[in-house]
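Entry 14. Two folds queued back to back today. First construct below, sequence then structure tokens.
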Amino acid sequence: MPRVIAKPDNLDALNTKYEQAELMHPVFLNSVPKCGTHLIKNIFRMFTPVEQQFQKAFIQFPNLRECRNAFEKESPQLSWGHLLFADTSAMILKDVRHIVLVRDPYDWVLARARFFLSDNFQANLEHLKGGSVHIEDYLNMMIFGIYDKVPTMQEIFLNNAVAWLGTSAHLVRYEDIILHLKNMDTPAAKEYFSTLLGYAGISLPENWIERIETGADRSQSSTSRENLNYKSKIDIPAELSEMQKKLVDYAAPGLRGLLGYS
């Protein structure tokens, strides 16, 4: 099983600085892996009492049944994970405020590569670290997968995002969060975060900007780009080449448009 090495944050302690309103509905933050899971999770944590945060486990399909109490209407909690679409998932999330976080597939390929090549991620891919292959080859592996080791980009987005579209799940784009984080003093940012948190039944308090900036502090996320560790320097491009963008479109035709990217 893959292992993620992550340092703990101190957001539970920072949470106590703020007066917290009781969460009235169970809320599940579901994300495609490497789409900003820590970012959205940590923002929501600043608006939710610590005792209503389900921190027992990161919820995925293999541990879904043992985490069912995270979704009880009688005892609402905020939980998070990577939960693929399936009959069991749909049944358990029927009465849950469900948010699905995605990222532009072009940028996702790079984010996945940065994480997989870091020392923070340990799996059966250690032989590919340290420059054993050209970075272009590695990026293609992020798109098309690695036989019997890594699923394709299309499989991941299909099961973790696309199949949830058209349901009661609320789609959120990582880039929209980042855009409004950079313009927090604008009416557009207030409207955006009011809508985002409002979907979970959370109203914006007067100090909403401070809370969001606390949760969005990148030093609190052990998997943000600047907090990843590498044994040797790896030059990952800031943007995919035009050819690799074409490969993304070939591997998952229509995906970017379906998610609101074009």
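Second construct, same run, same settings:
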Amino acid sequence: MKCSQCKNDKLSKEFPSNMITERCNHIPSYCLSCLIKNLDLANTTDQKIRKCPECSEKLSEKELRLISLAWDRVSFKIDVGNIGKAKTTQNINAADGNNNMEDIYVVLLNGQKCRFRYNQIKNIPMLRKEIRKKLDVDESKQKLIYNGVELQDQVTTPCTLQDYKIEPGSHIQLIIVLYGGAYAESTNSLIFDLFWGYPANGNQDCLDGSCLLYKGDVFFRKYDRISIFYPSFPYMRHSGDKLDEPNKRGSQRITAKLDALPPEITQLYFVLSSSNSPTIGHFKAPGFKLIDETQPDKPLCTYQLEQAAESQAVIMCCVSRVGQGMWEVIQIGKLSNGNVEDYDPIEKSIAQCSLFDKLH
């Protein structure tokens, strides 16, 4: 997403994880770096009253301490353009932070980064085992990409990092394949069910489920409670809002006939976003399920919505075509601004983790 102050595209983790004050009713659009500069937290000896730069709410001493602590804990920020590139003086200096050149970095699609000691990783299977230990992602669900090439396991002689010219300081992309993987499966009919409770104030509000279709890296069409059906493209449908006013509950459903989609449709991104409430966390007991209609008891995607509680939107997963009638479900979990009234921030977030360039 883009910082409204410095106008630079930043990772979601480079923004405050909570609202700037407890009284703010907006998603922070200042990155942490710009927020720290605006609040002048390097100079805390004065008695100046500090306010949210976006809505002018006054910050308490506790809120200032929390922001300062969040900044102190900021780790090395990834230069996304250099993922899959070996170390150079130029791209090291371009990164914001101190890069330990004895390490390699594994980067998830949501921007999360994990560090591994280069000299302790003897080969690709060992790297996968270390990823499983640190991230609890089974080896069979890991797709590792470096410099546009997928890292492969060899049964007889395992490939080493050096075989792929991976050097200390390199960044490797990790794509988590929840369904399909090396044995991509045929999925004909997909159902996405979303349900939620009204916010604590009891006001009617919607937690929106959207599906954005892409042709390669080009946006094609969206389905949401506003755009529920296109007669010229009858393979998908959105139910619109189904509201249960007496019980203060709501639900939505998206159906997709994957086997009928034109071959140029390569990705379907599933997104949750808050309509009027500032964050997803304002809704009571939200939940969802993504299933193959023929196997309703087998969830294709799991995501803890608590992880997106402080965000306006989250790109949960992508259903990606890997062959004729064959699809993979890939975990993303990228936080974002935006909602059904404003898809620009969501489309920019999707572009930051675009799967087309990584998988083709």
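Quick look at the second one. The domain at 80-177 is CATH 3.10.20.90 (Ubiquitin-like (UB roll)). DSSP finds six helices and 17 strands in the chain.
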